[in-house]
Structures are given as structure tokens and as C-alpha cells.
Specification:
The protein contains 14 helices and no strands. By secondary structure, the chain is mainly α. The longest helix has 38 residues.
Length: 333
């Protein structure tokens, strides 16, 4: 298994290198180049030339790239044009909110999607199956921001749930790690834990809707495929119990495509978080990215794009590892 993981890590390196080249090229394709983007309305040919010299942008292109790569590897993304703070510090400050929201959404999507998909396949053609198909189609079709506004305006007040922010204003909660729920547990401030969980309900459900629908449909289709396989009929003919067949043969073999789907949906959560965090004023990386786009904050955008790609690569590597755990034959391929 260790050799399998190392092989997947080595395969991820070329992907990240190619992406760094694309980011490097994107920065130099900006109108006026990076210097022109940094100067904005104050850009003049003389000022652009001076800033190019200061930033080393008048050096050979290969020298520039390797310096750029060196800064990226050390976490030096420069300062944000919006806040003048180091971009890395901004990311570290806002990242816990997005991780907390994404994990909550993923728990909802996986925790409901796999059982729903399995039950829909088991009772194919029944009421549950038909209702599941309709709901998953609606879940995929409804835009995230629209669903967020619907929940915010129609469910927040009746259910007594907060519709904005991560914690209630005026709540004296200790901040240790930036993770509101974890900090409350660590300090045993149970009122802060409960408040943070209540703030997570609506945005997490909003963000989970599309992954939940996709995971449910893929699980249903995968289970139906496995149920029609010859080895299932063989297992039944040998007199194996229904519970044994479902758990050992059906569900385990159906999980490979489901694992792929979970990995892809996890990588796409950042895109959904941009809209969800804006609707619910949930200040995470999605909020930071949206603000960076509005203000043309290129150092911030560069760092967030690279971070998103890194997360996507790592998630897919974990999916590959899960393949090896689910089906040992994958490890030797």
C-alpha cells in the first residue's frame, strides 16, 4: 500500500508543475503584465518599467519562472492588493471556515446519498425509487445561490436558525484554531459549539445539495449494475444469506464508482462555496475568492487557484488510495 501511495504522489507532481506554468503564463498575459495589474489606474509606461525592474520581470523568462516557482514552494504569494496583508496569512485565516463548511456538506452528501441510492436500487420501480429520482433531478437543477436564498428567507425564521455568519454577534467564544466547532469543544464552551452548529445547518445543506443528488444517482446506478452481475446470481445459488450478499458483494463492489464521484464532488465544493459563502456571509475561502475577483486582486487569485488545484490533486490521490482499500486488485495495476 505504501508503494501505491508513493506512486500516486509522484504522478501528482507533473500535474502541479503544469498548473504552475499556466498560472505563470496567465500573470504575464494580463493587460500591461503583472506590473500593470498591480499599479492599476496609476500605471504609466515609466512606472511599469520601474516596477518590472524591481520585481525582476525584465529578466529572462526561464529565470522568472524558476524564481516564481521558488516563491510558490515557500508559500510567498506576495501581499493582497485589497488588504495589503500577506496572501498566505489571509488564506490561513479564512481556510478553517471553508474546511468546516465543506466537511459538514460532505457528511450530509455521503451520509444521505449512499443509503438513499442503495435503497432506491433495492426497491427499483417503487415509490421510494421514483421520489428519489425526482428529488435528485431537482437537486442538480436548482442553482446553489437560488436554493440558498430560498432556505435563508423561508426556513431560517420558522426553524429558528441563523441566516448569516459563523457565530452570533456578541458571543464570547475563544478562538484557538479558527474552527468554531472544534474550538468550542477544546475549551468546553458548549454554547459556542451549539451556536456554530446552528450557523452551519443552512449553508452546509445548501452546499451539499448537488453532491448529494449526484452521489445518490451514481450509487443507485452502480448498485443496479452489480445486482445484475453473474457473481451475485452465483452467490444466491450457493445459498448465501441476503445480508451477506448485500454487504460483502453488492455494496463493496458498487463503491468504486461512488468513491470516484465523492472525490470529484469534494474537489468541486470550493466552487460551490464561493456562492454559498456569499449568500450566507460565511467568511471562508469562497468569500475571499469572490472578493478577489471583484477587486482584481491577482496575488490572492493566484494563490487560491494553486490551492484549489492542490486540494483537487490530493483528494483524487485519496480516492485512488480508497480504490486500493476497497479492491486490492487495484494496487497491482
Amino acid at each position: 500500500m505504501l508503494r501505491f501511495i508513493v506512486r500516486r504522489l509522484l504522478q501528482a507532481i507533473p500535474t502541479l508543475l503544469i498548473l504552475s506554468i499556466l498560472i505563470f503564463a496567465w500573470l504575464r498575459a494580463l493587460p500591461g503584465g503583472p506590473a500593470g495589474a498591480l499599479l492599476g489606474d496609476k500605471a504609466t509606461p515609466a512606472k511599469i518599467a520601474d516596477l518590472n525592474h524591481v520585481l525582476g520581470l525584465d529578466q529572462p523568462i526561464f529565470v522568472q519562472y524558476f524564481k516564481f516557482l521558488g516563491r510558490v514552494l515557500t508559500g510567498d504569494f506576495g501581499n493582497s492588493l485589497s488588504s495589503t496583508q500577506p496572501v498566505l496569512q489571509e488564506i490561513l485565516d479564512f481556510m478553517p471556515a471553508t474546511i468546516e463548511l465543506s466537511i459538514s456538506a460532505l457528511i450530509i452528501a455521503v451520509g444521505l446519498g449512499i443509503p438513499l441510492g442503495y435503497l432506491a436500487a433495492r426497491f427499483r420501480g417503487g415509490v421510494l425509487d421514483n421520489v428519489t429520482i425526482i428529488l435528485t433531478l431537482v437537486g442538480v437543477a436548482v442553482p446553489v445561490f437560488f436554493l440558498g436564498y430560498l432556505l435563508q428567507n423561508n426556513l431560517a425564521a420558522p426553524l429558528g436558525l441563523p441566516s448569516q455568519g459563523r457565530l452570533s454577534t456578541g458571543l464570547d467564544a475563544t478562538n484557538i484554531t479558527g474552527f468554531a466547532v472544534l474550538d468550542g469543544i477544546m475549551t468546553q464552551e458548549w454554547d459556542a459549539v451549539w451556536d456554530a452548529l446552528r450557523h452551519l445547518v443552512l449553508p452546509a445543506f445548501t452546499l451539499a445539495t448537488i453532491p448529494l443528488a449526484v452521489i445518490t444517482r451514481i450509487t443507485r446506478a452502480s448498485v443496479l449494475d452489480v445486482l445484475n452481475e453473474d457473481f451475485i446470481r452465483t452467490a444466491k445459488s450457493k445459498g448465501l444469506g441476503e445480508q451477506t450478499i448485500r454487504g460483502r458483494h453488492v455494496l463493496r463492489n458498487a463503491l468504486l464508482p461512488v468513491a470516484t464521484t465523492i472525490g470529484l464532488q469534494t474537489g468541486l465544493l470550493l466552487g460551490g462555496a464561493v456562492l454559498t459563502e456569499r449568500v450566507f456571509n460565511f467568511r471562508g475561502l469562497g468569500y475571499l475568492l469572490a472578493e478577489g475577483i471583484e477587486r482584481k486582486d491577482f496575488p490572492r487569485l493566484q494563490a487560491l487557484i494553486l490551492l484549489g488545484a492542490l486540494v483537487y490533486v490530493l483528494v483524487n490521490m485519496l480516492v485512488d488510495v480508497s480504490y486500493g482499500l476497497i479492491d486490492p486488485r487495484v494496487r497491482v495495476r
